[in-house]
Amino acid sequence: MFGSGLAIVPFLHAGVVQEYGWLNEQQFLDAVAVAMITPGPVVITVAFIGYLVNGFWGACVAALATFLPCYLFTILPAPYFQKIAKNKFIKAFVDGITAAVGGALGGAVLVIAMQSIIDIPTALITVAAVLALIYVKKIKEPQIIIAAALLGYLLKL
C-alpha cells in the first residue's frame, strides 16, 4: 500500500461488503474500528475480516496476502532506491500516486462516516471533533477519541 494503510478501506469495503457479501455493513465497521485501536491497523482489519469469513486460516491468508506484497515491494528494491529515486519518471510516478492516495483516504473517510454517523448526536460529535482538530492546535487525537467516547456514552444514558 502506498501512502497510508487507510487508503485500502474503500477497496476492502467494495470487495468484502458490496461485491462478495462476506460481511454486512456493521461487521465491516466493527472490523475497521477494532483495528484502528491497534498498531498495524490494515493487517489487523484484513485478518479480522479473514477470520470472520473463514476462521483462523482465513485470518492467516488474508493477513499474508495483504502484508507480503507490500513487504516485498519495499525490501527488494531498497538497495536500488538511491539510484532510482533521482529518475524523473519515478518522481513523476510517485507524485501521481501521492495525489491518488489523498483521494483514497477521502474514500476511506466517506465509507466509515456513512456507517458511523447515524443520527444528530453522532453528527454533532463528528463536527465537534473535526473543528477541534482544525482549530485547537495542541489537542492530540487520543484526547479527541476519549472525549467523543465519553460524549457518546453520556448521550446513550
What's the rounded overall pLDDT mean?
81
What is the end-to-end distance? 41 Å
Largest sheet, strands/sense/barrel = none
Q: Using the CA coordinates, give the radius of gyration.
A: 18 Å
Low-confidence regions: none
Helical coverage, percent range: over 70%
Tell me what portion of residues adopts beta-strand conformation: under 5%
The tally of helices reads 7
Concise overview:
The protein is mostly helical. Helix content is 79%, strand content 0%.
Structural account:
This protein has 157 residues and is an all-alpha fold. The chain folds into two domains: 5-116, no CATH class; 118-157, no CATH class. The protein is 79% helix and 0% strand. The chain contains seven helices and no strands. The chain has helices at 9-19, 25-36, 41-75, 81-85, 88-116, 120-135, 141-156. Helix 2 crosses helix 3 and helix 6 (120-135) packs antiparallel against helix 7. The longest helix has 35 residues, at 41-75. The chain is globular, with a radius of gyration of 18 Å. The relative contact order is 0.10. The model has no long low-confidence stretch (mean pLDDT 81).
List the helices and strands and how they pair.
Elements: H1 9-19, H2 25-36, H3 41-75, H4 81-85, H5 88-116, H6 120-135, H7 141-156
Helix pairs in contact: 2-3, 6-7
